[in-house]
Amino acid sequence: MRSALGGASVIAVLLAGCTAPVVPPPVAPPDVTRGTASAPAPTAAVAHDLATGLDVPWDLAALPDGRLLVTLRDRAEVVRIDTDGSLHTVDHIEEVTPAGEGGLLGIALSPSFATDQLLYLYYSVAQENRVVRYRYSDTALTGPTPIITGIPRAQNHDGGRLRFGPDGNLYVATGDAGRTENAQDRNSLGGKILRVAADGSIPAGNPFGNAVYSYGHRNVQGIGWDAEGRMYASEFGQNTWDELNLIERGGNYGWPGSEGETQQPGLITPLLVWRTSEASPSGIAVTPDGTVYLAALRGERVWRTVRSGDRMATPTVFLDGLGRIRHVAIIGKDLLVLTNNTARGTPRRGDDRLVAVPLP
């Protein structure tokens, strides 16, 4: 288990008790090492904008023809980015109630999108988060069909990522909605990774007979798989350690009793941890060989770590200098990077933006 702590910040692509009882300070796992960024700064041509002027973007999906769909959290809009960089509003989701970290969040296309044109959205309404399926056209989303309802929502810790796994099922990353007891309650949909079939039914292999696939999570916003079917997830810590986890069916990841590395029986310890100031991880992208790119909000960078046997190598900074990073995705030979400066950061000219960076 390793942690990315510190790391030189460069505009770089790594081509990267009586008296109260005394409470000891948090201790990192014994083999934690520091991430570094040692490569020289690239030329300006390495990274280039695909789109600018995005208002609080959250997630993206690639259409079969190469055009891109992006969700705008606070505007509750799905927008399309054409190959010339032009932006087009596909639809506004009327029932979305943006507030705090809630709003229009994750997007995923059906594995059979080319023939069924089905699209899935994760979003917040007044009292909950839900997953809803739509039929897509370039000018509208029609036929809304609820797939999962009753996911707890709050101002914070709303999770929100959607991805279809290699088994064809839909995986849904949720947060504890600020109520820590949700994470260990296997009857609650909060603080979990959920798994459902494309129609919302419960797959036979789910460990608890409901939608819950793994539990004990605080706020998961990134999920992905390598070619061996291993599932990775990023998780926001509270004050000390952010995490990259290897997800196991029925696994308990410890929250709220554990944050970061743990040796408690029955709990799964992270693959990697970072100080919260260096990460605050949102989306991740995973290559077939198990290389993980991790978007850092507070850390304002993209981390890169390579699988080495049953562990992950010391993370390095792949990209920084763009401010807060909400999501990363691998499309073709590029890493697409979605910035997040119009929500909590300091917007710069052109923010927020979608940037393409060639993969090494």
What does this protein structure show overall?
The protein has 360 residues and is an all-beta fold. The protein has a domain of 219 residues: 6 Propeller (Neuraminidase). It has two helices and 27 strands. The strands form seven sheets. A five-stranded mixed sheet has the order 1-18-17-16-15, with no helix packed on it. It has a four-stranded antiparallel sheet with strand order 2-27-26-25, with no helix packed on it. A hairpin with a 4-residue loop joins strand 20 and strand 21. It is globular, with a radius of gyration of 19 Å. The two termini are 24 Å apart.
Residue share in helix = under 10%
Number of distinct beta strands:
27
| Spatial ordering of strands, largest sheet | 1-18-17-16-15
What's the gyration radius in Å? 19 Å
Distance between the termini: 24 Å
Q: CATH topology of one domain, which one? A: Neuraminidase
What is the gist of this entry?
It contains 2 helices and 27 strands.
What structural keywords apply?
four-stranded antiparallel beta sheet, globular
Task: Outline the fold blueprint.
Blueprint (H helix, E strand, L loop, with lengths): L1 E3 L43 E4 L5 E6 L5 E5 L4 E5 L5 E6 L11 E6 L3 H4 L1 E7 L4 E9 L2 E12 L10 E3 L5 E4 L7 H4 L7 E5 L15 E4 L4 E6 L5 E5 L5 E7 L24 E4 L5 E6 L5 E5 L4 E5 L1 E2 L2 E2 L3 E5 L4 E7 L2 E6 L14 E5 L2
